[in-house]
Amino acid sequence: MNGTIGRRGVLAGASMLFLGACSKVADSTVGSHLLGAAETWHKKVHRSLADRTALAREYSKEDISPTFKGNGTLNIDTPEYQASIENQFADWRLEVRGMVDNPMTLSMDNIRALPQRTQITRHDCVEGWSAIGEWTGPQLSTLLEAAGVQEGANFVVFRCADRFSQGPYYESVDMVDAMHPQTIVAHMLNGEPVPVKNGAPLRMRIEKQLGYKHAKYLTAIELVASLDDIGEGEGGYWEDHYGYQWYAGI
Amino acid sequence: MAKTTKRHGLMTRFWHWLNLLCIVILFMSGLNISNAHRFLYWGNYGFDPADAWLAVPRFPGWATIPDYYSLAAARDWHILMAWPFAVGLLVMWIAMLVKGRFWREMRTTPKEWHPKAIWKDIVEHLKLNFEHGDAKYNFLQKVAYGVVLGIFLPGMIFTGLAISPGFEPAAPWLVDILGGRQSARSIHFIFSWGIFAFFVVHVVLVVLAGPIGQIRDMITGGKLAEKADNGDAQ
Asked: Do A242 and B72 touch (CB under 8 A)?
């Protein structure tokens, strides 16, 4: 009995020393820089191995999962959003603003009138699970071309109607992912309007990255030169407040 | 001359310790990542615990990196250490193939695969008789090292790449041959425990075979017994 506890104690002790060393490394300047740099190396390799417009896998109707899991915000408890549900989002507006020549405000009818793309893709959550669904909406590139992106705009910021404990949700991508053919502003899931739990009425699809990039309850698309002045400067809600990786293709 | 009489070459020794560091950090940060969604599935999709083939236990803080639940920080470590792990293994594999080491040292003969022969090897191991004969490794060592070097370690890299949505467009066939993303994730998990099992057996055998000499040789290179009387081995 004592032997077992002793051995376990030694193991736990060794583990604690090692864990302590790891957290020292992570907290050091060099360590945290290295941890951040590794993410960028992955992004560069991913983008050099395949064409930048290479498509994420598209599935057939038979592959669609029986349901599509909702995660994060599942409903927004504000009178405004509840009223929007009531009127089937007839009053919902999507702004395209920031570094564009023609800022736009689009209604759901405007969005549905644009050329549409339908894609059956797999949604991979950072937690590890996956779901497959059919998404329909205009390509983000269509909106950006109509708005006229100005020289020097490097990022697209997605503003959302939902809030978490630390503040409003937002996300961002660079122009490579923004102009990717599968990057769409989805208003339909599996042939129906996007359900509330999945981000009604509009959610982004950024198919080559993990789920937290796919901003839900979308209210505005903002073109910016730098992410430094947005939120805490890390490019997204989870990036700002919990240290998640901005490049979520890993 | 000195190189040929070393028990372990410089590159093997360097890789061994680098690989140990990588595997420990990757494994422990992986356990933290597992805690984020403790269910494993087969196929392309999977999110409902009711469809899981395995509900994985929650791993305690002392077994994970960092020692509290943080998917973001665990992923940072995993994403960083994947680099030295993958590049180190790639270099090691190229060197083994160029020098013909894998074939020379890990090759087994049909005779060795006879159930009676395998049983005899196991019994000898249990008696703590680690006789190698004239080969560098005995049969069980060849199988263990062969499976780890040939399947588990490269398998971790391939299944890891297959889970990564940014990598998939470069090689969608990889996800297909693994049976879909959730299958790749399940195999990633299974192989990690295969490596853990090897680690445990490896450490136990090193302890039984004389840990000080074994660890010293893996640091300094040691000497091959049959060449110990060569004057220039010193």
From this structure: yes
Helices (H) and strands (E) in chain B, counts: 10, 2
Is A85's pLDDT higher than 90?
yes
Handedness of CA B41, B46, B48, B50 (dihedral sign): negative
Where is average pLDDT lowest: A101-105, A229-233, B90-94, B122-126? B122-126
The Cβ of residue B87 has, within 10 Å, a number of other Cβ atoms equal to 12
The confidence score (pLDDT) of residue B229 equals 42
Domain ranges of chain B: 2-233
Q: What is the pLDDT of residue B4?
A: 54
In eight-state DSSP terms, residue A139 is B
Cis peptide before B165 (omega within 30 of 0): no
pLDDT tens sequence across A209-220: 999 999 999 999
Pairing state of beta strands A167-174 and A155-164?
A: antiparallel
pLDDT tens by residue, A162-202: 999 999 999 999 999 999 999 999 999 999 999 999 999 99
Domain ranges in chain A? 2-45, 55-242
Whether residues A49 and B70 touch (CB distance < 8 A) is answered with no
Where chain B has pLDDT below 70, the residues are 1-5, 132-134, 225-234
Q: CATH second-level architecture of B2-233?
A: Up-down Bundle (1.20)
Degrees to nearest 5, angle at CA A19 with A4 and B196: 60
In the block, which residue shows the tokens 């937002």?
Answer: A170
Cα–Cα dist A77/B179, whole Å:
41
Closest residue to B66, CB basis, from A23, A127, A210: A23
pLDDT in tens, B117-140: 888 888 888 888 777 666 778 888
Task: Give the nearest chain A residue to B169 (CA atoms).
Answer: A56
Interface contact flag, B37 A131, Cβ < 8 Å: no
Which residues, in sequence order, are CB contacts of B193 under 8 Å at separation 6+?
A: none
Cis ω for the linkage preceding B66 (within 30 of 0): yes
Select the residue of B24, B166, B181 nearest A122 (Cβ to Cβ): B181
CATH fold of A55-242, please? Sulfite Oxidase; Chain A, domain 2 (3.90.420)
Which tokens sit at B30?
A: 């992986």
CB B42 within 8 A of CB B180: yes
What are the Cα distances from residue A106, in Å, to A146, B35, B195? 12, 41, 54
Task: Annotate B194-215 with DSSP letters as a single string.
Answer: HHHHHHHHHHHHHHHT-HHHHH
DSSP state of A241: H
State the DSSP code for B46.
Answer: B
Residue numbers of A between 228 and 247 with CB closer than 8 Å to B: 238, 242-245, 247
